[in-house]
Write a structure and sequence with these properties.
A hairpin with a 5-residue loop joins strand 1 and strand 2 (24-30). Helix 10 packs antiparallel against helix 11 (292-301). This protein is mostly helical. The chain is flat, with a radius of gyration of 30 Å. It has 15 helices and 3 strands. The chain has a 3-stranded antiparallel β-sheet.
Length: 408
């Protein structure tokens, strides 16, 4: 069995020098030795005057995380450079110089060194599976083999941009209400722990019976004061357990996927998002010349939802047995009629790639509109809830004072 070769990251050197016009320049380069740095600079017309190994930060200086957006931007820039006729290695130099994320710079310098050593772009990217998934590497390899790498990079860049845009919309739909609810809970907790007890001491000197609503709020305040710390500890334990289960248990993830698709409002958005991702990924892989059965297997892994992943694998098995794609999608029971009908038209007209692209665009627009509608609907609802919570607490605290004023 072949063993994977571990890629050794070369050290980073800082350098200073002069270009062909005599201007002072400086920068950073990854290489095996200072001599290699000087050789690289000479090839660029730079005479190095000083080359030093870059010192490591005193306290480790945690690396900046490489985000999917960083990868998407890199692929778009690389596609643009190569479409303009710039060689791969030079394209990496140009793209790297314009990056602000040091971790991304380091990653691309590693890839460039591997390419300079004779590796193909696809095999170099495969050395970094955390940043470049198998789908991207397979498509780039297909482009290299067919001699259409520039067009393939452009298609991959478009795919990644649309995929990341779709993910951003879903995160927006989820994060907005959660953040507002958390803020509401924090504000309410502060009022119950810090503000209400002040009024409780004031009411103790009244010597009169308090209104039922005020007594109810005071009882809640006493409970929260007594149990807020244990409750917070239980919350963090449950959050940690949830994170561990989500990271290690396939059954738990499958359960969450099934539940999420059945949620009111959000379930519909998630369903449309997965269908859009399915159509976009299948369109991209099919256009790259990947056989339909193999493309469906790739799409299943990239679906992002276990319910759809299982359904797509069943579709793949039926297509392998000779069933049409649209018929297999229909019998799976998870794909909407619109997507099935447009797929059928694409198969019958011989324009499956184009129709799948239209399906993806249609459902991406649907998700966009649904998220905007959900946000518009939630804003007044959340403000109303906040008003009731804060206003209710204030009324409960001032109600005894109003009653005393009326008695006087």
């Amino acid at each position: 069995m072949a063993t994977a070769t571990k890629v050794v990251t070369p050290p980073t050197f800082t350098w200073q020098g002069k270009d062909k016009r005599g201007n002072k320049v400086k920068g950073e380069t990854m290489a095996a030795s200072p001599a290699m740095v000087k050789a690289q600079l000479r090839s660029q017309g730079i005479a190095a005057t000083a080359v030093r190994k870059k010192a490591k930060p005193l306290f480790g200086g945690g690396k900046q995380k490489i985000t999917p957006k960083d990868i998407s931007v890199f692929l778009r820039q690389l596609a643009t450079m190569m479409k303009a006729g710039v060689p791969v290695v030079q394209s990496f130099d140009i793209v790297t110089d314009g990056l602000e994320n040091p971790s991304m710079k380091e990653l691309l310098q590693q890839v460039k060194i591997e390419i300079e050593g004779g590796s193909t772009l696809a095999s170099s990217l495969r050395s970094h599976p955390m940043e470049f998934d198998s789908l991207v590497c397979n498509l780039i390899e297909s482009g290299e083999q067919s001699g259409a790498l520039e067009q393939m990079l452009d298609r991959i860049a478009t795919y990644k941009e649309k995929t990341e845009a779709l993910k951003a919309k879903i995160k927006k739909a989820i994060k907005y209400p959660i953040s507002v609810v958390v803020v509401a809970m924090v504000v309410t907790g502060i009022l119950l722990i810090k503000v209400v007890p002040v009024f409780e001491e004031l009411f103790a000197g009244f010597g009169a019976e308090l209104p039922a609503f005020t007594r109810f709020v005071l009882d809640i305040s006493e409970f929260v004061q007594a149990w807020w710390l244990p409750s917070l500890a239980v919350f963090f334990v449950m959050a940690y357990a949830f994170k561990q289960a989500k990271g290690k248990s396939k059954e738990f993830n499958a359960f969450l996927d099934r539940i999420s698709l059945k949620l009111p409002v959000m379930g519909d958005i998630l369903n449309k998002a997965v269908v859009a991702r399915f159509a976009r990924t299948l369109s991209t892989t099919f256009a790259a010349g990947v056989p339909l059965v193999e493309a469906l297997e790739t799409v299943a892994r990239a679906s992002g939802n276990s319910v759809y992943e299982e359904a797509i694998y069943k579709v793949r098995d039926e297509v392998t047995a000779g069933t049409q794609l649209q018929q297999a999608m229909r019998t799976s029971g998870v794909f909407p009629a619109m997507a099935v009908q447009m797929t059928a038209i694409g198969e019958e007209s011989g324009a499956l790639e184009t129709m799948l692209d239209k399906v993806a665009s249609y459902y991406e627009d649907e998700v966009d509109n649904a998220v905007d509608g959900l946000t518009s609907m939630l804003e007044p609802l959340i403000m109303s809830v906040l008003g009731v919570l804060v206003g209710g607490l204030l009324i409960a605290m001032y109600l005894p004072i109003f009653q005393m004023g009326n008695a006087i």
